[in-house]
Design a protein that fits this description.
Length: about 475
């Protein structure tokens, strides 16, 4: 017999309830939504609440409290009962140094708002400024989100989970030796490095509205990671200005990384149907061709309609459909789900709550439970009227004109399919046919890859950063 839903207390009344009563309400909510551990697979959730309290500055669009809102929705629906929940530990300096340079980490560790004037040259060199300010507790913040992604990757690699989630991660712009686009350390690169210890190939898929440039650059010269990014592209006015259709990896086909950077550059206003069709056709073909051992999905929520910085018209369920599609194509492959951008906090929270539900196979009722702290952030017509899935594609004053034509979209699909002819079978054949040569070939490729990284670190990074500085005001980016 279905349990009778408890009468929902008013928000203010709820605030004064004893803990036991709150827990009873959450239990009842979980029952009401039929939330239980998924059959046949495990989902782990990685989080450390200390990450919420950090502030980039009052007017900065990146608000770590969006993570608190997300967590409150996830917990309010009772989704924690369907997952293994881990309190993540901060990444150590040694762990961060697996990707980032010592001189960059030295700086991250020492600079603070009180001494930052003494470090002017370093701040410029390492990409600090309006987008990436020095703030109180910066080291704690970066090591917390980095540590959560590392823990999630390890949980997958030790088969303790099949899907692992870290909404505080996904900070795809950070470079080996520079902060960029609100990102200080690249937790995605660190997690993928961890996964490469166990899998020959890892696929990275990025649905943030911005190009996943930091991850692409980190694995530019290797065929062990294929990066696939869907993003708004305009080299003149939209950050980071990279990720065109012709940016496919190193130009020489003898370089292992050639054709393993896949980009789907989009224009303003793409809608649910267009995005879904494009995503399924391209991502499906890439999974088939590359045949990764593990998949990482960056779920930046700035690709939603109405986002403070984004340019698309997507609704929450269309964004989530990308997660559902990748999950459906994973089969036995471990899947790491990460956050990313997202600058309208209430909609970031709705989306990541919905996507947590998709991960565990739960369907949530569309009215937000009354027992959610800060429920007022979701109330009122302008804030989504207390619904989990308010319409975001047609918000007055925020709808972007759709600049996509069927022919243009077909060309994007064709472009990726053409590149996949080069990807097909490449590294997997070598692994099966030449197992003894494999590790030596890998070590050589790894060496070349590290050399190139160091080179890019100096040259390309300077070019990219100049470009970032030249484009318009901050409000237009990320
Ligand atoms: Zn973004």
């Amino acid at each position: 017999m279905a349990p009778t839903p408890a009468p929902e207390p008013e928000h203010l009344e709820w605030k004064s309830l004893p803990q036991a009563e709150i827990e009873r309400l959450i239990d009842a909510e979980a029952d009401r939504n039929g939330i239980e551990k998924p059959q046949g697979y495990k989902v782990s959730f990685h989080y450390n609440a200390d990450v919420e309290s950090h502030h980039f500055g009052k007017t900065h669009p990146m608000k770590p409290w969006r993570l608190m809102l997300s967590k409150q929705l996830i917990v309010g629906y009772g989704l924690q009962y369907a997952m293994e929940c881990y309190q993540s530990l901060p990444a150590t300096r040694q762990e961060l140094a697996r990707f980032h340079t010592d001189r960059y980490l030295d700086f991250l560790g020492i600079v603070n708002p009180l001494n930052m004037e003494d470090w002017k040259a370093e701040r410029d060199r390492f990409g600090f400024g309006d987008d990436c300010p020095v703030f109180d507790g910066m080291w704690d913040y970066v090591s917390l989100y980095g540590g959560a992604s590392l823990q999630a990757a390890r949980t997958l690699m030790s088969h303790e989970a099949d899907i692992a989630i870290n909404w505080s991660g996904g900070l795809h712009h950070a470079k080996k030796s520079a902060a960029s686009g609100f990102c200080y350390v690249n937790d995605i690169v660190l997690a993928i490095q961890e996964m490469l210890r166990h899998h020959a190939r890892v696929l990275y898929v990025d649905i943030d509205v911005h190009h996943g440039d930091g991850v692409e650059q980190a694995f530019w010269s290797t065929d062990r990671v294929c990066t696939l990014s869907y993003h708004k592209y305009d080299p003149e006015v939209f950050f980071p200005g990279t990720g065109g259709a012709d940016e496919t990896g190193p130009p020489h086909s003898r370089d292992e990384g050639a054709h393993h950077a896949l980009n789907v550059p989009l224009d303003d206003g793409i809608d649910d149907e267009q995005y879904g069709d494009l995503f399924r056709r391209i991502t499906g073909a890439v999974i088939d061709a590359f045949d990764p051992g593990a998949i990482v999905l960056q779920c930046g929520a700035d690709s939603l309609g109405g986002d403070r910085l984004g340019r698309f018209n997507l609704n929450i369920k269309a964004h989530g459909a990308c997660v559902a599609f990748v999950k459906s194509r994973c089969h036995d492959r471990p899947l790491l789900i990460l956050g990313g951008g997202g600058y309208t906090p209430r909609n970031v929270a709705r989306t990541w709550c919905h996507e947590t539900a998709l991960a565990v196979g739960a369907e949530l009722r569309g009215t937000l439970p009354a027992h959610i702290p800060y429920r007022q952030a979701f109330m009122g017509e302008d804030n989504g009227a207390g619904l989990l899935y308010p319409e975001l594609h047609n918000i007055e004053g925020k709808r972007h004109q759709n600049r996509h034509s069927p022919a243009g979209l077909a060309r994007l699909v064709e472009n990726v399919l053409t590149q996949l002819r080069y990807v097909r079978g490449a590294p997997s054949v070598q692994m099966q046919e030449l197992p003894r040569d494999y590790s030596r070939a890998r070590a050589e490729a790894e060496e070349r890859f590290q050399e190139e990284l160091m080179e890019m670190d100096g040259v390309a990074e300077g070019r990219r950063r100049r470009k970032e500085k030249n484009v318009g005001g901050r409000g237009e980016f990320r």
